[in-house]
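Reading a protein record of the kind used here takes only a little practice. An example makes this concrete, so a full record is given next.
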Amino acid sequence: MLWTPQKGILKLDHNTGAVGANPYGTSVTTGGAAATKGTPAQLIASTAFDTYWITILATGYGLAATDSQGALDILTGAATEEVLIPNLLMGYCSPTDSATGVGPKVWNFPLYIPAGTRIACQVAGQRISTAMRVSVFLYGGDAMPPFRVGRKVTTYGMGTVPFGTTIVPGASAAEGAWTQITASTSEDHFCVVPSFQCGTDTTLTRLMYAYDIGLGTATETEMIQSYWFAVTDNEMMRGPENPMPAFFDIKSGSRLVARVSNSGVNDAGNYNTVLHCVS
């Protein structure tokens, strides 16, 4: 029997506008202290359909010769909003209107967001009271999605905002050591997405970083190999590439780890990371 996929799933909504604009997306401003999220900014007033997949782009926060670590929340509902996706590490994301830009920080999540939902965001960073841009693309429709969809995201490894867990990349194509992101997951998850940013540094080196995610105690099992992040020598950063989530069954109580290798010599600042897990 031939199975024919249902039509209607790929409806699209977004906040980037109908005509060319530079920069695109919605302006959102970091709080007045590095560890404080700023005022939420509305991205979409009311979703037009049931959403099963969300793509988030962060741009315009990086600045040459400047420390620009940051963390971004995606929110739902009217004030006071609920956090749907906490602490995406958007640090050093480059402007779209810069000749030296390298592209956005980007994340994808299989999440159910009901029709009629307001979507907003809030950000914090080392560059205080500073505007950046956030864009969202929502995919959904009338049919059931042909993949598993979650209801929330748990972020593991977040320290004091806007920093994650310190991780030391292996230099010159050597694997770094596995770094524990969480000793024990709080619930079952079925997919994971990484965030990674450079540390407190105003003179970054042009490098490529390969990022692996692992599971369990020593010896750890590698779940997925080589998400890629790029850093330029004018303090801009993009990634992860490929931005698709890794689909794995992660049981409650699991230990999650990560490791990073780079193409040259590490910069002076402490790199940091978190893992975003969907349930």
